[in-house]
Amino acid sequence: MSRRFFADEPIIGDTAQLTGAEAEHAVKVLRAKVGDLVTLFDGGGAEFPARITAMGRSGVALAVLARREVSRELATEVTLGVALPKGDRQRWLVEKAVELGVSSLVPLITQRGVAQPNEAALGRLRRYVIEAAKQSGRNRLLQIAAPQAFAGFGRQASRAAFRILAHPGLDSVPIAELALPGPAGAVSCAVGPEGGFTDEELAAADGWRRVSLGLRILRVETAAVALAAWFSLRDAIRPGREPQTVAGTQNVTSGE
Ligand code: SAH
Predict the structure, then answer these.
(1) How confident is the model at residue 29 (pLDDT cuts 50, 70, 90)?
(2) DSSP readout, 119-161?
(3) 136 vs 38, 111, 206, 220, CA distance in Å?
(4) Among 35, 74, 175, 238, which one has the highest count of C-beta atoms within 10 angstroms of its own C-beta?
(5) 79 C-alpha vs ligand 1 centroid, how far in Å?
(6) Residue 68 — very low, low, confident or very high, per pLDDT cuts 50/70/90?
(7) What SS3 class is residue 9?
């Protein structure tokens, strides 16, 4: 895979621009030059081979050579509601969630949770998403949602998704024993804070299947990643779906 860059404006014509952190990364870290071939993506599901045509203060200009719809997404739409841990562990969680194919991450406000990310912190999480998408080859971005109370998340998830609440203990069903729906569906997972969900939260979690991820107590981010890996790996071994397949190649038409 050639060097990938994220264009924050949708790519529609035969030119594109990299600005801000992306331009800086290309110029200062990767020492890209005029004439270099790279791959762009804009989060809309396609990727675009492109050539650098100019570099300057305002950014990097590119000629877009083609548009390819390439999906490296999971068949299952996985939403992770997580009472976020702090600092670096947040970053690790976001990075692994992107690599494993999670569709969206909802910071959960829980009774025993610590402080919630403010706008600046959410912005940092979104930057980690882009970095991980560049590295892992995803052409869609994991969505970082606004923080939500656990009750509200439950109501929203109840519309379509199969709901799993991770909770240690003998009352929970081991995840391997859970009858899951087929891969083409939506799953919402809830992971509590270090102090765990309260009895009140558990009692209110109507319609959620309480699952155990093993006999050990996992850190919040480990539990979230273990759940994501469960869906990611089952997708990886499913025959008849080739995540790397180029579904359609279409030349970019200019000036029309
Ligand atoms: N003392 C807390 C542990 C919290 S661990 C308690 O007993 O509930 C933080 C979160 O990670 C939990 O709320 C749960 O969602 C998840 N988790 C950790 N270990 C788990 C396990 N073995 N099985 C299921 N969920 C687990």
Answers:
(1) confident
(2) HHHHHHHHHHHHHHHHHHT-SBPPEEPPPEEHHHHHHHHTTT-
(3) 15, 34, 36, 23
(4) 74
(5) 18
(6) very high
(7) coil
